[in-house]
Amino acid sequence: MKKVIWALVLLSLPVFSSACNTVQSKPVKSTDFALGTIIEQQVYGANAQKASDEVWAQIKERDALWTINSPGGDINKLNNNAGLGYVELNPETISILREARRISDLSGGAAFDITVAPLVKAWGIGTDNPRVPSADAVQELVSLVNYRDVLIDEKNGSASLLKKGQMVDLGGIAKGYIGDRAIDIYKSNGITSAFINLGGNVAALGSKPDGSPWTVGIQNPRGENSDIVGVVEVVDKAVVTSGDYQRYFIKDGQRYCHIFDPGTGYPMDSGLMSVTIIASSSTDADGLAKVIVLGLDRGMEMVKNYGRAEAIFITNDKKIYVTPGLKGKFRLEDATHEYTYIQNG
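Below the sequence we write its predicted structure tokens.
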């Protein structure tokens, strides 16, 4: 079996491999911690070190700008001024806010909405003190969730939140956006073969140096960290997974994951364990992966309507639904023999 790049959205170090039989056979490899996760680059070419260094510089800068609790960061500044008017922001922050609004429009905010931050804070999933807020508290917080209340003044490079108490959290799109910026940096340095893995958000430029596709493993949602259920082969694509196994807690027998339904204010309960999106845009793949909130049928429909992505849906009853464009590119590799692969189309 081929070695794979683990597409695991986890706080653990992925495993990578690539071909080693060309002139550019020795890549520049680097690993660091940022954006709350482990990030690894593998870059081939004469300017590989320069490109890699530029990407790290961009990641550090964006991390400081966009971490929700970063003192002096743009998102912290925007949230602290909610309901008080516009604040001037870095052009890249304006850009990602604009992208977030665009992706939210695809589902009218039903799947992806960057203003769920008050809910994230209230539930505390992934912290040392997760909890189930009262129904009244959840309902009050839902009234603050509306991505259309993120107002952007392109001319003056500023943005605002319409209501006091509203908050933005870029955690659902920042890694995807940075993946696209990394690809841009690689290209500007003449790189034709590289990938970056931002805690499971994989963005690949070109193919491996020998011309073969990159191979990305899809995690078993109910297995150990290194267990996979299948692999997908990609060239010039991003691969992003959202899953209910990444961060969760159990209370009174009920499992609560970190992915919220913006409409209900509760962790999603859609019948899906994970959704993997394969697209040319890492930003779009990251945002589209939130169709996990919509369930299988509505999620499939949204991916179809988008028209420029493929998807792998894994249901609670361990069925794997794969969109038609992945025929011949996805293969089941389930050592547990618990999953059923269903080819759509």
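The longest helix spans residues 48-66.
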